[in-house]
Amino acid sequence: MYELDHIYYGYDGKTVIEDVSLNFEAGHFYGILGPNGSGKTTLLDLLSGHLRPHGGQIRLDGRQMASYSRKALARRIALVPQDYRINFPYTCGEVLMMGRYPHLPRFSHPTDRDHAVVAEVIEQTGLSAFADRYVDRLSGGERQRVVFARGLAQATDILLLDEATASLDIQHAIALLNLADRRVGQGGTVIAVFQDINLAALYCDRWVCLRQGRLVCAGPTADVLTAATLRAVFDVSAQVVHQPFCGARQVCLNKEVA
Predict the structure, then answer these.
(1) 218 CA to centre of own chain
(2) How far apart are alpha carbons 202 and 188 in whole angstroms?
(3) Which CATH number covers residue 35?
(4) What is the pLDDT of residue 106?
(5) N or C, fewer C-beta in 10 Å, the chain?
(6) Which pLDDT tens digit goes with each residue over 94-117?
């Protein structure tokens, strides 16, 4: 699906992504992990097409990313940012309908199908009580749930999540990640930046680890999630054990910095 070939990106004289070569295959839940400033958000912006690499190439389904129109990319890729500011008094229902715009012909109004998709996502995400409320009057966590739901309403086969559940309580974080995981089960692809290592271990079957803009390792979670990887990427001491309760590897951290 995605092919990244020796990607470079930087600004203000600083290299943010340095010589990253990587493939993302369809039908997987990828976790992007690394310390602050390691280039995780920049990588997602490159994958979404919001940024273009200063060196190297990114191909989507064999085509150069730059050859796609923005609308064509929006039909394939939905990005849920961590901090999305909406300063206009749109209702939550209107914000979700914005996710349908890439599917509408120019100057057209939403169809019955678009309204049905939005209604289904509102029900799935438990936002029925918010549908007619103004989004700028919601709490930060409530607003983030709406932004996440908008990404789901966009109905793309690629969903990019930039710490999209970081501001949510654990109940709503799990509920929304379950919906993303369901998309993977239906053949979609999720590529998500995580700060919570154990949440990433719970949902992601593939890990990509960055440090100082460079790729440290990438591969199946069972191979990548090790104490040695956590020490190399985060400078922490940890034990990694399989937890039967959740059916996944989980990390136990030591107070000592490695």
Answers:
(1) 16
(2) 18
(3) 3.40.50.300
(4) 83
(5) C
(6) 999 999 999 998 878 999 999 999
Amino acid at 215: L
- Pairing status of strand 189-193 against strand 2-11: unpaired
One-letter amino acid for residue 59 of the chain: R
Helix/strand/coil for 27: coil
112 vs 13, 104, 109, 117, 130, CA distance in Å?
A: 50, 12, 10, 9, 21
Look at the chain and report how many structural domains it folds into.
1
Q: How many whole angstroms separate alpha carbon 114 and alpha carbon 128?
A: 17
The identity of residue 70, as a single letter, is R
pLDDT digits (tens, 9 = 90+) for 29-41: 999 999 999 999 9
Domain that holds residue 89: 2-257
3-state secondary structure of 78: strand
Kindly tell me if the per-residue pLDDT of 48 is higher than 70. Answer: yes
Amino acid at 160: L
C-alpha–C-alpha distance, residues 150 and 122, integer Å = 9
